[in-house]
Amino acid sequence: MGVIIKISVVLLSVFLALLGLGFHNITSPPAITASFNRNQYWGPGKEPQKQDDSVRKFKLDVPDNVIQDLKQRLSNMRPLTPPLEGIQQQYGINSNLLKEILEFWRTKYNWTERQEYLNKYPQYKTNIQGLDIHFLHVKPQNVPKTKKILPLMILHGWPGSVREFYEIIPHLTTQSDDRDFVFEVIAPHIPGYGFSQAAAKPGLGANQIAVIMNNLMQRLGFKQYYCQGGDFGAIILQSLTILYPNNVLGYHTNMAYVSTPLANIKTALGMLYPGWIVRKDHQDRVYPLWDKFMHRIRETGYLHLQATKPDTLGVGVGDSPAGLAAYILEKFTTGTNIQWQTREDGGLLEKFTYTNLLDNVMIYWISNSATTSFRLYAESFSTAHTGQNVLRQPIKVPTAVARFRWDFYVADGLLGEIYPNNLQLSDFDGGHFAAFEVPEVLAQDIFNAVEKFLVYQSNVQQ
Ligand SMILES: *[C@@H]1O[C@H](CO)[C@@H](O)[C@H](O)[C@H]1NC(C)=O
Ligand SMILES: *[C@@H]1O[C@H](CO)[C@@H](O)[C@H](O)[C@H]1NC(C)=O
User: Fold this and answer.
1) CA-to-CA separations, 10 to 6, 18, 176, 260, 288, in angstroms, rounded
2) What is the pLDDT along the chain (462 residues), one digit of tens a residue?
3) Centre of ligand 1 from the C-alpha of residue 419, in Å
4) Largest Cα–Cα distance of the chain, in whole Å?
5) Residue whose CA lies nearest to ligand 1 atom number 13
6) Number of domains, the chain
């Protein structure tokens, strides 16, 4: 773009933004417009008189006929359309790759074994606000009395599940001599995902799920706790830290979210001089703005569909194992590294195994939760939900942000608006599913962050 055009575009967008919103509305966050009822009922029909607040043990025990049916569907599927000549993942998942994975699923993936694996951590269900919430609860073993055990909630997103955390959990719950604390991990499924019951009523967006998640921690006796999330787990937990600053002791995220008019204006102004908002070595992650915008459009078609017509989309995706695997696994190729778009194997085996990836697909399959998982987008991107302004608020509790090379990116100069109390900013190689992809790296970063949170708290108390 020519310099004159560039300057004109920037000034025009700034002018329009100021005109539309007024200076005050841009520089200070609008008030939260909703009140959040801790007892709001999301279950089917009328709220029962008496609520069951017990915490029940849970184990996966999928009936044989479900697995038979799955195998039959995989055997009877229609032929996949071959990819265009010279095309790898650019039109969506490569069907040669998909074919190989589906064949593996049908002939080698052993559910008996995998179910045992998925049952290796203690799991529970408890009813909150009318919904049965499923979660892993893993405590560290043989901890000396001198060490603190800190409660940490970790939350997945879409198209993930608690399966993403099976490799990181041992890192988080194993004590090491050089630290005086270790974690007790609580990993819930979002309502409508995996084995957490879906809402029967409209309106259960990220903010409302934050209420449920805080209620879960209170039910388990954790008045105060730490939390960590990526993808939609990050959105929900960001909301939770804003709604319950007295309950959250610190928040670590591998997907910081800053979307405000001021951030947009700064990003536009940065076209003139990127150094205002973004480090020199990261400028190609934000600019050229138009390229980045078009890239975003190309990669987020799923989001638009899920945010508008989840029920239509869910029929096809949810009814076919091939369709479900294609839809989910595409995200694990390009979401992990966009450069893998030009590889026929999608790079999947660089960081994952077919078995591990199919565990996650299986959780969606056996719980039949395609549609209910998509609805999270409809509920959270509705104007009613965004108009609640929760994610426009600065986070009061201490935070730590880990940025992965191929994940969504927030520039240093924008972070402060929502993360004014950020104690750690780390940059790593890797993609969107950090816990699943590089468990050791993420665990180490969480430990480092919580160490800083603890120092911060002891300073505040003095
Ligand atoms: C700007 O903020 C004021 C006060 O907070 C509010 O009354 C007004 O509706 C806002 N204007 C816009 C365009 O959002
Ligand atoms: C699947 O795993 C179970 C448990 O390890 C084993 O007993 C069984 O033989 C395996 N099935 C196949 C088909 O390999």
Assistant:
1) 6, 12, 51, 16, 13
2) 577 777 777 777 777 776 666 677 777 899 999 999 999 999 999 999 998 999 999 999 999 999 999 999 999 999 999 999 999 999 999 999 999 999 999 999 999 999 999 999 999 999 999 999 999 999 999 999 999 999 999 999 999 999 999 999 999 999 988 999 999 999 999 999 999 999 999 999 999 999 999 999 999 999 999 999 999 999 999 999 999 999 999 999 999 999 998 999 999 999 999 999 999 999 999 999 999 999 999 999 999 999 999 999 999 999 999 999 999 999 999 999 999 999 999 999 999 999 999 999 999 999 999 999 999 999 999 999 999 999 999 999 999 999 999 999 999 999 999 999 999 999 999 999 999 999 999 999 999 999 999 999 999 887
3) 23
4) 68
5) 21
6) 1
Q: Quick check: CB of 107 below 6 Å from ligand 2?
A: no
Rounded distance, CA 273 to CA 290, Å?
15
257 is catalytic: no
Q: Domain range holding 224?
A: 55-461
Specify the CATH number for the domain of residue 399: 3.40.50.1820
Q: Is 112 in the pocket of ligand 2 (CB under 6 A)?
A: yes
| Single-letter code of the amino acid located at 376 | L
Between the alpha carbon of residue 28 and those of residues 2, 269, 383, the distances in Å are 33, 19, 20
> 207 C-alpha to center of ligand 1: Å?
22
Tell how far the Cα of 108 is from the centroid of ligand 2, in angstroms. 10
Residue 15 counted as domain residue: no
Is residue 273 part of the annotated active site? The answer reads no
Q: Which residue has its alpha carbon closest to ligand 1 atom 11?
A: 21
Ligand number with the minimum distance to the CA of 19: 1
- Residue 136 inside a domain? The answer is yes
Distance (Å, rounded) from C-alpha 86 to C-alpha 106? 28
